[in-house]
Design a protein that fits this description.
The chain is an alpha+beta fold. About 25% of the residues lie in helices and about 15% in strands. It has helices spanning about 1-5, 10-20, 20-25, 35-45, 60-70, 80-90, 115-120, 130-135, 140-150, 245-250, 305, and strands at about 95-100, 160-165, 190-195, 200-205, 210-215, 230-235, 240-245, 260, 270-275, 280-285, 300, 320. Strand 3 and strand 4 form a beta hairpin. Helix 4 crosses helix 6 (about 80-90). The chain is globular, with a radius of gyration of 19 Å.
Length: about 325
């Protein structure tokens, strides 16, 4: 039964979600930025990730609406009215004011280099600026922050500054417990996560095959994708990362590698979920705006704000289906 149900919503909408044309002609799709922003915030709160929150109708927002409708039993999967009505009730105010605090400065290092051999000399892969930190904290990107803060130089933010942000439940890097591991759980370990590499989405199902959540992902390169059924073995916060250029490009371990420190700008982000396929895991990313593009040798990348929610949904013992 599970195989029949997996990603039925995504498969039904694949052609439409990847082509913005239908959205332009669909009267149920809102046109104004604030309405779309409310919907994105609502979907994000309910674990149907729309990608970066930016008030624009993109591929992943469209897919999030479809998945939400499917998970909640709405027959017309493509109708935005259900989500929009719920979003207007739950998210009457789509923006919030955020005051930057001094305690965030240890998580920022403008001197963090780009080269792995130099990064290996540091103890923490910090954000390179406060605007990068604030953007990830509120599930958006620096471009959208600049757009909604036209009177501020967001690239020069400092403690004490107040910025307008999307009214989402923030991802707080200071609350991520270093090296925390997550044990198996009678309920969560019975869940299944399906990685659909064509749709570039991951969906979580409970033991009764109900869809609980769905997030955008970046799958690995096609030649390295571990298609099949696997199992979650370990979940751990703030892992270090062995950077091996040859492995990332060819899938074969090279002689030269660098051990990179943990942090939000690590190539694996702030969490690692290792599966029973050796060397492959579900993890965060240093580049949330690139989610949806193939950039790795087989692992599956989530935005850090989505990756940190995985332990609420799956645990060691959970089934992983890669297709």
């Amino acid at each position: 039964m599970l195989k029949r149900l997996l990603f039925i919503a995504l498969l039904a909408t694949a052609a439409r979600a990847q082509d913005p044309g239908p959205a332009k002609d669909d009267p149920s799709v809102p046109r104004d930025r604030d309405s779309v922003l409310r919907i994105q915030i609502f979907l994000d709160r309910h674990l149907f990730g729309p990608g970066k929150i930016d008030g624009a109708v993109g591929e992943f927002t469209y897919k999030a609406v479809v998945n939400y409708n499917y998970a909640h039993g709405h027959r017309d999967l493509y109708n935005w009215a259900h989500v929009q009505e719920a979003a207007e009730r739950e998210v009457p105010v789509p923006y919030a004011a955020y005051k930057i605090k001094e305690n965030l400065l240890p998580y920022v290092n403008p001197k963090l280099p780009e080269e792995p051999e130099e990064q290996a000399k540091f103890s923490f892969m910090a954000y390179r600026s406060l605007v990068e930190l604030v953007a990830e904290r509120f599930h958006t990107d620096e471009t959208f922050l600049a757009l909604i803060n036209p009177q501020k130089k967001v690239e020069a933010l400092k403690p004490g500054d107040i910025v307008v942000v999307p009214n989402v439940r923030s991802f707080r890097i200071e609350e991520v417990k270093p090296m925390q591991s997550y044990k198996s759980d009678p309920t969560l370990s019975a869940h299944t996560i399906v990685i659909d590499t064509t749709e570039r989405m991951a969906a979580v199902y409970d033991a009764k095959e109900a869809m609980l959540a769905a997030f955008p992902i970046t799958p690995g390169k096609p030649q390295f994708i571990p298609v099949g059924q696997w199992e979650v073995k370990t979940i751990m916060n703030t892992p270090s990362f062995r950077y091996d250029k040859q492995f990332l490009e060819e899938g074969v371990r090279g002689d030269e590698a660098y051990q990179l420190p943990p942090g939000p700008n690590s190539p694996v982000g702030i969490i690692w979920c290792g599966i029973s396929k050796s060397g492959i895991g579900l993890h965060g990313t240093a580049l949330p705006r690139t989610i949806g593009r193939a950039r790795s040798a087989g692992c599956v990348r989530f935005a850090n704000w989505d990756a940190i929610r995985l332990p609420q949904l799956i645990r060691p013992g959970s089934r992983v289906i890669v297709r």
